[in-house]
Design goal:
The chain contains one helix and eight strands; from the N terminus they run ββββββββα. The protein has about 160 residues and is of the alpha+beta class. Among the domains are: about 60 residues, no CATH class; about 30 residues. β5 and β6 form a beta hairpin. It starts with about 20 loop residues before the first strand and ends in a 7-residue tail after the last helix. Keywords: Membrane, Transmembrane, Transmembrane helix. One of its GO terms (biological process) is positive regulation of osteoblast differentiation. InterPro entries: ATRAID, EGF, LRR_dom_sf.
Length: about 160
């Protein structure tokens, strides 16, 4: 994805849809900052070129090789932050596993068969019960409103 020399002052909001990008060039843009959340989900990104004034997202530790030339910084080989010997600042809760979520970013995914907040519920989500209750409540409320508001409708 070549976004070089596009007069970007900030990371475009549509960039979040390009998470499958492997190579991204942001050089020759007057960018002032690269918020780390801008690259959330970019797990396939292997080469990122940014203006020299900016650091690589996630820091130099998030990349295998960081090189500089006269006008740009090249961040290559995104590292998996879950495979480092350094303990994570926010370890994943019990019954979950760490997964990369972009340069220097992680996400915690629940191990099977756990789900829910902090992966504390075991089994499967009760989809049938949830859908039944939600559907019943929706139909009941719709019928109630239709019955009470019907008299206010004017007939021609």
């Amino acid at each position: 994805l070549d976004l070089s020399n596009c007069s970007l002052h900030s990371v475009p909001p549509g960039l979040t849809e390009a998470t499958a990008a492997i190579v991204l060039d942001l050089t020759e843009n007057p960018l002032t900052a690269l918020p780390s959340a801008s690259f959330l989900g970019f797990i396939h990104l292997q080469s990122l070129a940014v203006p020299l004034a900016l650091e690589c997202p996630g820091g130099n530790d998030a990349w295998q090789n960081v090189t500089e030339d006269t006008s740009s910084r090249l961040c290559q080989g995104q590292r998996n932050p879950c495979n480092t010997s350094v303990e994570l600042a926010w370890p994943c809760p019990e019954n979950s596993v760490c997964a990369p979520d972009g340069p220097g970013l992680i996400q915690c995914l629940c191990d099977n068969p756990f789900y829910g907040y902090k992966c504390l519920r075991e089994g499967t989500f009760p989809m049938l019960l949830f859908g039944g209750i939600l559907g019943t409540a929706t139909v009941s409320l719709s019928l109630l409103l239709w019955g009470t508001q019907r008299r206010k409708a004017k007939t021609p």
